[in-house]
Design goal:
alpha+beta; single chain; 7 strands; two-stranded antiparallel sheet; 43% strand
Length: 144
């Protein structure tokens, strides 16, 4: 069965690398023991489903869903961070491979889908803009 924490950690690393900005795992990211200043993202785990072939391993496939909350000071900055996150997860190279790998031992991520792109939502009172994106990652056991 897939270890969810390994998927979450791999995706958090991908988002930090692809955006060049800190990414917290369910919480505001910390830099040097202090809360990060926007822009940053927060990764949230959502439903996990398991499946498999009849009469075989019933947990040989998994779908993981994650929400990425992009937090920024301006509308433009939020869209920029959302674009970087979306490209980081869904972007392909010239040969059809992923721009950024997701490595989870014993598993292969064979599909990455955009589940929701809610776009930016301004909170004028807090001087913060949130941009919510959800990704569905589809996994199967690696051969060998």
């Amino acid at each position: 069965m897939i270890e969810r924490r390994l998927v979450t950690s791999a995706l958090q690393g991908l988002l930090a690398a692809a955006t060049g900005k800190p990414c917290g795992m369910g919480v505001l990211p910390q830099l040097g023991g202090k809360p990060a200043e926007p822009p940053y993202s927060v990764l949230r785990s959502l439903p996990l489903t398991l499946a498999g072939a009849p009469f075989a391993d019933q947990h040989e496939d998994a779908d993981t869903v994650y929400q990425v909350d992009c937090v920024a000071r301006t509308h433009d900055q939020a869209e920029w961070l959302g674009d970087r996150a979306r490209t980081g997860v869904l972007g392909r190279d010239g040969r059809g491979g992923w721009l950024h790998t997701l490595t989870v031992p014993g598993w292969s991520c064979y599909a990455r889908d955009l589940d929701l792109d809610a776009g930016p939502e301004d909170d004028a009172a807090a001087a913060i803009v949130f941009y919510v994106i959800r990704f569905r990652l589809r996994w199967t056991r690696s051969a060998g």
